[in-house]
Amino acid sequence: MAFFYNEGFVRICTHRYNTDSEDMNDLFMHLTNSSIQKHGHMDQVSDNPVNNAEATEAGGTKDRYDILDFSPYPGSILDVIVKSLVAGEDSIPFQVNSFDLYGYDILLDESFRPWLIESNSSPSMGRDNSLDYVIKDALIYDTMRLVRPLHFDRAALLSILNRRAHDLAQEKKRPNQLPPTEVEARALQQLNEDLTDILHGERPRQYGEMPQHMGNFQRIAPSAMHHQN
């Protein structure tokens, strides 16, 4: 399953864009990377010189910044993300009991059409400003709640591994005379008992089962959009 987090960042340039040849090397005009723009100033965009993160964070103050309504566009952005997942599905390794976190860089053109720049696996969770703390802390919290990794008893696991090693050594000395079906049934029962001890009775989420806690996530695959693509 694939899930989309409903909060993100709008990265902007701190110098207004133009096509003048003398400004082609102005990094503050052409690159929205926060590592670059945090050193710039909004002196060419706003009368109030602030850095990029502060400008984005203050997005609700209409008398200071030109605010764009992005509400019609999340659907088209989701469409780009789902298409990229479908295109790369065969290259994403299937690993049971694991998850991946991807960061998508989407460019909106003058018509607000989304274009995929890149997708990053394990994006940085570093926090350089107050907005990073607001968005990323919530993302980490909601991710762990959605995945819900089960706590396991390390001492119980070690005890079970030692017992199994002892049982295997005993079987080599004295082969089991029970019918194969009974051996399999006993092994399955013992496995269930061992897992109950290790996980303290908690049941792992089954493949395809929806998480109990979605937080600010929404499922995008499988979905009607996913099947259309």
TrEMBL record:
PANTHER family: TUBULIN POLYGLUTAMYLASE (PTHR12241), TUBULIN-TYROSINE LIGASE FAMILY PROTEIN (PTHR12241:SF155). It comes from Aphanomyces astaci (Crayfish plague agent). InterPro entries: TTL/TTLL_fam (IPR004344). One of its GO terms (biological process) is microtubule cytoskeleton organization. The keyword Transport does not apply. It holds the Pfam family TTL. GO terms for cellular component: ciliary basal body. This is Tubulin--tyrosine ligase-like protein 9. Keywords: ATP-binding, Ligase, Nucleotide-binding. It comes from the Eukaryota. GO terms for molecular function: ATP binding; tubulin binding; tubulin-glutamic acid ligase activity.
